[in-house]
Amino acid sequence: TQLLEQSPQFLSIQEGENLTVYCNSSSVFSSLQWYRQEPGEGPVLLVTVVTGGEVKKLKRLTFQFGDARKDSSLHITAAQPGDTGLYLCAGAGFGNEKLTFGTGTRLTIIP
Amino acid sequence: DTGVSQDPRHKITKRGQNVTFRCDPISEHNRLYWYRQTLGQGPEFLTYFQNEAQLEKSRLLSDRFSAERPKGSFSTLEIQRTEQGDSAMYLCASSLWVSGELFFGEGSRLTVL
Question: Above 80 in pLDDT, residue B77?
Answer without folding.
Answer: yes
